[in-house]
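User: I'm putting together notes for a lab meeting next week and I want to include a structural view of one of the chains we've been expressing. I don't have a solved structure, so I'd like a prediction I can at least talk through. The sequence is below, exactly as it appears in our construct file.
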Amino acid sequence: MTRFLPPALAATVEELLASARWAVRVAWSTNAALLLSAAALSLVRGVVPAGLALTARGLVNATMAHLQGASGGLGSLGVWLVLGFALTVAEGVARLANTLVMQRFRDELNHSITSDILRHAATLDVAFFEDARSQDILQRAKDNPADHIVRFVTEILACLSNGVVVLSLFALLVVIEPLVLLVVVLFTLPYLRFQWRLAARQHALERSRTTKRRWTAYFVSTLTGRGTVGEVRILGLAPLLIERFRTLMAEFRDQDRKLYVHGFAGSSLFVVVTTGAIYAMFVRVAYRVLSGALTVGDLAIFGGTTNRLRATLESLVYSVSAAMEQTLYIANVIEFLEVRPTPAGTTTVALTTRHAEIEFRDVHFTYPGAAEPALNGVSLHIVPGETVAVVGENGAGKTTLVKLIARLYDPDSGCVLFDGVDLRELSRDFLHAEISFVFQAFGRYEATAAENIAYGDWQRLLHDRDAVQQIAEQAGVDAMLQAMPHGYDTMLGRMFGEYDPSGGQWQKIAVARAFGRNAALLILDEPTSNLDARAEYELFCRFRELAKGRTTIIISHRFSTVSMANRILVMDAGRIVESGTHDELVARAGSYADLYELHRRQMDAVRPKESGQL
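Assistant: Thanks for the context. Below is the predicted structure for the 614-residue chain, given as structure tokens.
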């Protein structure tokens, strides 16, 4: 189909057709019956205008015949009136029915395509969501995907309806005045090209704005988000952020204004030129009526139908260009759905024993877009049931290390083994079921207190309140939850609830959630960063019992936490530089000893002040 077109244009057309085919498949699979109903209603609405034009012609001619004394004039007049009434009712009902069908179709498609996008997002690697370039792809895909497909289907159906109207009216008018064909060809095709180029420019402009749109959303959330509004007020940042927001919005406004004016000018030219040509032909038809070559009914049908034809042609061109424009937006959804996660393995037979033995073999890893590696030749071995602490300065690679164990990333080279099997050969679902992970940026879920703990193993715990309460008691948070306004049923967070726990309370709940998961490997990334000394002590009084039998990895800057470990790993610049117990590392007088000495001096400086305050 496109082999006769220039290469650039052929590529564009192929891309449009591919997006259109995909949209039709999605629409058909969503609800074929509704789609067929909408198509049938569009055909009915397309045929009605020609029928009404013939009815008008029949009414005029029947009236003229009756006035001239011809027999049967009144009977014919009645028939044409009944037919006109029926067609008018049919057009109105078809329009209302079409609205109903498309409303239902929009709801079902929104449910279907949004669910597909969320399911696909749930399969993608964490790295995808942490890459700024991927955020643009994600943002474009989330931009009302169902609306774009519904609008595409709506415009295609409008093309079908308007196409039937144009063909049927054109067939009537050509019989009366063949020059109508010349007007359609000379003016409609250039106008279609104009509208398409306008739509392509609008889409290209919106695509180029994706990052800036995310900036505007960021400014709005920063100025109105409860987590930032206090600091914004104290620092007086509101005028600066508002000005940056206004600058971007003004840029969008000025760019859109140019497109609006351009579109108005082109459409106005089409209206003026086609109207002039139609009225010129109308004069020609009137002259032929006066000369006896045509009837008064022909003049009536030509006068009314040509205006309808011109308006329908304009609508048809707009629908075609709008449908093509929607395929450009649909391509954004396809682009996101074509992003593929790293292939996951399926080997689980060898891991039925679940020891959680961890081994790194010369692992190298660099974050996408980063200049320096986060891990640089890491090798280590953690035996089952061992508690290992990982320490080091910020940026040393501690969190990256445990994220690779959880296979949130894959190493660039080397391998990570779980019970002797390369993680890349394991099913992600199996692996994640064997890991309980308290993230440094732990989840603060807008849910009840009980649900926040149950999310640790929701399929088992969500509807088992007794088990949730038992976990809370073991983790030492039962009294805290019972003291909340509605106990375990208190809705946490300010987005939907009325109670917002402190940072320390949230962290205690996160730790309880981790212990509720029956996993062989426990990973705690700064598990006490929001806790005071007393709360930390109470937590770790229970820790050894709760972690019993599990391989445990702790990342912490607090040496009171680190000292609980069987072994301490010291990281620096993506490497493990020291390994041993607390006493061994202090005696070695290396990196760990330096960090510990700095910590000790800080504590010595704080204690006199605390004593003075007491």
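A couple of points you could mention at the meeting. The chain has three domains: 15-337, 349-434+519-613, 444-518. The longest helix spans residues 238-290.

User: Perfect, that's what I needed.
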